[in-house]
Amino acid sequence: MHVRFDAIAELPSKAQVEELRLRQGRRESRRLQGVEQRRARLLTLASALYLEHGAAGFNMRDLAHRAGYTVGALYGYFDSKDAIFLALRQEMLLQMEQAVSGARLPRGVRAKSVVDAAGAAAVPGTARPGNLLEARALAWLEHLQRHPQLVPLLLAAPGAQAAALMQEAQPTRADLFPVIALCAEALVEQGCPQTWAWRLCEDALAFGIGLLVLHQDDTGADQQAGRFLAFLRQGVDRWQSGGPDGAPAVVEPPQVGQTDLF
Questions:
Q1: What is the C-alpha to C-alpha distance for residues 252 and 231, in angstroms, rounded to an integer?
Q2: What pTM did the predictor assign?
């Protein structure tokens, strides 16, 4: 057996091994960043396609055409069309949360205390949360009004596979936790019991979505907002009239004029 000593490579030093590891890590980081950027671009295109055609008219072939990919290449980023719907739903929930967290009172407007008929301030702890609760609640409602085609995604992503994915991930109520929490916070800060604040904000969410679903074509955005605010204000009034423990009656759709849901 012959050994060529000039062919024996010197073992790399610890510094060289570390440098190699760092270079490999940087390459992998750039690769993953590229994947995320392409995935985000696909979601942007998918969102536009969904807004144009809805779930029924959405298909992978059109998305591939717009993206300049083959249909098969799309499956490297999303397992199915339902997976795209689920990703769009998660993005919509994030946008709703951002809209609510960014809601502010109009300039110069401060939280108003509840006043009695004579104009005297009410008992401390029962102050109305001013317009903040309304501003936050209207933020998510107006976001959905601007994108009514996305409302079905909020209720349940189309397709059995997407429904299964959502069920495995977390229930719808948990998905909406940040939106409900931000709205309820406006009441809790004014002394409202947390349980009641959450109940009112959950009821308002259901009522608002119901308006969008049932009256999308026969009711204007301003009228929807007015009916929604009437429902919200009735809930706040019931809390304030519920006694010192803040235990009100069940919130019902307003009965004044045309403010009921049906």
A1: 8
A2: 0.65
